[in-house]
Amino acid sequence: MTTIVVGGGPAGLAAAIELRRLGAGRVVVLEREAEPGGVPRHCDHLGFGLLDLHRLLGGPRYAARYAALAERAGVEIRSRTSVTDWAAPMEVGTTSPRGVETISADAIVLATGCRERPRSARLVPGTRPAGVFTTGALQQIVHLQRERVGRRAVVVGAEHVSFSAVLTLAQAGAEAVAMVTEYPAHQTYAPLAWFAAGRRGVPILTGARVAAIRGRDRVDGVDLADVATGARLAIACDTVVFTGDWIPDHELARRGALAMDGASRAPRVDQAGRTSARGVFACGNLVHAAETADVAALGGRGVARGVATFLHTGSWPAPPVHVTCVPPVRWVAPGAIDPGEPLDVFRLRVDEPCANVDLVVAQGTREIWRRRYSALVPNRSIRAEVGGSPALRAEEALIFRIEARS
Amino acid sequence: MLVEAADDVGTGTSKANTAILHTGFDAKPGTLEARLVRRGHALLLEHGPRLGIPIERVGALLVAWTDEQDAALAGIAAKAAENGYAATRRVERDELYRLEPHLGAGAVAALAVPDEHIICPFTTPLALATEAVANGVALRLGAAVERVAQADGAHVLETSAGSVVARWVVNAAGLHADTIDRLFGHDRFTVTPRRGELIVFDKLARPLVRHTILPVPTATTKGVLVAPTVFGNVVLGPTAEDVPDRAATGTTAEGLASLLGKGRRILPELVREEVTATYVGLRAATEHTDYQIAFHADQRYACAGGIRSTGLTASMAIAEHVAQGLRDAGLVLRRRDAFREIRMPNIGEAFPRPYQEPARVAAHPDYGCIVCHCERVTRGEILDAARAPIPARTLDGLRRRTRAAFGRCQGFYCLAEVTRLLAGATGETPARLLRTP
What we know:
Chain A is α/β, with parallel strands linked by helices. Chain A is built from 8 helices and 28 strands.
């Protein structure tokens, strides 16, 4: 029995390790980069490993540790191996320096992760000079290539990763001259905001967006616009870092015609990580973009149990109950429920800050779960430990909505 | 000698347009432009494949959304025939939606123009320049012509990179053709760039559209189209705005919003897909409605100006026309005995790319080492581009030659590695390539 795991980041490696531990047979991880480990390879700061490895590690060490654990578990890791397309329902085409090949499997786990929307996808107008990066590109230039990036940077976004970008800029000798967020406040934890930005005096410009990027060969400034009034503010800078605004790297999922969730743009999976295609699973930040690496890894570990069961029994459930949401809930993962299994933890995002609200899960008029939240913050992971095994109707969606409390 | 102000060939109007190889069906009959577009279409179809220029015959559908537009289709077909293009065909509503099932609601009918092709706007000028260089043309980049003087019966072009002495001069300076023309004492046209903003959508949008979807043109503009690209994306645009600034290559919030509004009507599912890139093209429009091509035997000077958005299509025909004009003006041109043909590396989706070729990867594992994942660009292609006869010397130059860091992630995954590879292969530092201050 062979399982292919596409993507050697925390989720994919954790899934592969767990599959080996469960005695699921041959496990092949296809990783397109030169080294396995995924995004943590270039997140050179502490904060990794708490929930999954019960220790506190820096990103590169965390990535290396997973790679070592996978090797020890007998996982076959093929790095520099890109999955280019599906060759058949349970077969993928690959390209690597070893050649152009196809590989087939009894189960396939997609763990292709997520990326930040670049400037173009956010439709930020202006010229197209050099000096515009995503955090991902910034971190690789600074931490993997040990290069400088510029002197004065504007960081677009004020969520966790945005503050990580400020730290990376500081390590590269660049000053963050401002952080910009459309929301009325930053969206990270106060200690991180202070550690990265507050103690350096980096102003967080709230209620503002980037209206234009200026510069010919290299950025020479950005124009900000007040979201409410449209008032403009010009800031001189030579670097702009677009942070957060995650999107699943879902090309392979979509080319495989898997059912997708329109809001999260992730393949729709159930509690066990099953997609709409028999034998194909998905986990990690491909299904919830983005959670911290330990959450992604735990997701991978969880999906391994679903894969092992499938390999053992060959059974695949009937079409699931869909999970949808009503604004200001932006998306919910997982986006499907196998009514034959207990409900698990859901993760969701909101579009706007909410204070003193109830998060309600209902099917039709029937309320299934309700919990009070004192604050819901946009761009921040929201956990809903729904649990239980309510009798769900097959044809009707489970809906997540927010109710204001009087 | 080819003298170019920019640091690479094809960086102006040539690279930023809708990348369509036009039949010329809608040109103004009887104009030089109409004739050269038609001839250029044939020449690029003949030479493009051997030069390695990605070209795809997708055909166009000129869609009428109102009865009034429907009534105009017959006239457009008649004009096409007058331009020597008789293969247009009326497509009724039901067939139109069979051909383009994702088209927005409300289309009435269409005119099919089966010979409209899409073409690679990056490879085309690079291929022509590379073949020129392979056959003895000296290419001087970064040489902006600033003054022209006469000495010993020759022109002396003072450029930003030293002077160039030439017996004959051909002005093909695009957006700056009027400036050069004035250096030769002529004042017959002024370039007022027509700015067009365009949006490139994700490759996942490509299955939504088969043909180039054209609007029925109005008196002032050809309108906004939706077209597949040879890279497997879908482009929406252009807007049309006359701008005084020849360097006004910035997009605007209004322009992009207007395009999305039009796109939503033409192909509603398109605007739900992710945007890969936005860009601006400046067409070298003048106060005249035709190309401004003139010969001055006495001055040993030819001017090929006012080449508008059709220039990509007409390029080879313009060259043929200019060569004939120079011959007529007394320049002796002899055909080379040993003409060296070149072939550019393919960067089009309709033809095999290195990562898809087992034999190539087996022979050279660098072609199996994908560095830019979104566009599937290999280490081998990046190194080739850095060593090409006209090498990639900048990241933008590399993007135009290979598509590296040009895809949906815009370098989230690969920018650092691509920069490192190009730096290693060219001797530049990563900081210089990134223009780090």
